[in-house]
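pinging the channel bc i need a second pair of eyes. not urgent but kinda urgent?? the chain im working w is below, pasted from the shared doc
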Amino acid sequence: MSYSHYDRLSALESTFLNLEDGNTHMHIGSVAICQIGPLANEVGGIDIERIFEFVDQALQERPRFQQKLNFVPGTGQPVWIDDDKFNLRYHVRHTRLPAPGDARLLKRLAGRIMSQQLDRVRPLWELWFVEGLEDGRFAIISKVHHSLVGGQGGIDILSALMAPEAARRRRNPREWLPRPPPSSGRLLVDAISRRASLPLSLLRSGSRVLAGAAGRHDSVRDAMEGIVEVATSGFRPADETPLNQSLGPYRRLDWMPVDFDAAREIKNRLGGKINDVVLATTAGAIRTFFGRRGMSVNGLDFRVLVPIDKRGKSEGGISGSHVSSVVVRLPLDEPDPHQRYLRILDATREVKGSKQSLGAETLAEIADLTDSALMGQMAQLGLWSRAANMIVTSVPGSPVPLSVLGAPLLEVYPLVPMGINQALGIGLVSYAGSLYWGFNSDWDALPDLHHLVEATQFEFETLHKAAIGASKA
């Protein structure tokens, strides 16, 4: 038999593909803003040829970004195969903003880019280098399918370009040598063989999965109870809000930074973690936003989906998704920011004491051993039944300044996908002393997105003042 190669997608990776349609996009993104500095060419634009060479070198350590989807005949199960027609200049794109090159124009361009699905006949990512920003800056807009990356998403695809040692790391150019893809016959035979061996595989590996869960927690029963919690989470749907309506394909983006030291001071004075600060600020902002629309929040059952990156620190890289999620109820009915924060602490402690995350993680591992469609069906059920109203996720970034070929990275804003009937997603990343908020919304559902951003800024500052006042009392 002649040599060929392919990689199976995990159940979680397949789920992200299955959740996507023309209106519900499953790509993650980011907008990074840099000072052009040493990357300027003779006319003041970006030296794009250096960028092409630099990205090509970075891909040598990330072969998944030179792979595309293929599908098992009959079953439709997706697999990764090497792209024998890989073209770097299709994925790395160069454009320019019209004058004045301000933030409003950049947000509109990023929104148009994020409104388009990635082409599934090619590797599922794009990098846009945007020159013409005011004050001698340029932007990098990344767009990566969630099936390629885990919780850090669009931030991770830039990590190879922005690592402190990246500019010094030079390699000889390497020609892309794709491995031959398998025939349809081989894919089908392998799928049939795998299904035939499934009972024995489950007997061996299923016990390993549960034993692993038991090793991380008190007992196998914890893992099983966690699966039940995940399976029943949508039986009592969250209340319907203006954020929960059918999506269109078009996206409206916005962003803002806050001081990371202020966020750290809040959690140091009031307890908890940075994520509690994020959730409390979000709760206050949504409360204000709904109030501006004339909506009562008294007794409102409002929940957010909070992804948790399960990838170990030693794994590094960007190959594969390792994300679990928990659902947290936000107390929008609480008017006092200090009391709201304390209630958030109670809610997150309750979630940590539950087995949601363990159940989702164990379910993903079992689905990998059996049928990945099981996890996709449960995810769709949870979204359709409105187990949560929106997604809020935050990831740690570099505490020290980074650069791209010597061009300093000034700001970076993450953009997370939205689920079925979820018109808003909020992503955050910490970087070099700031906490950067990215807002991704449906164009028609949130024409007043800027009001939510203003409310978020106000609520963060109000919570900071309340934390200082509470510690002095």
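so Residues 5 and 181 are 6 Å apart (CA to CA). and DSSP finds 14 helices and 15 strands in the chain. — does that match what u expected or am i reading it wrong
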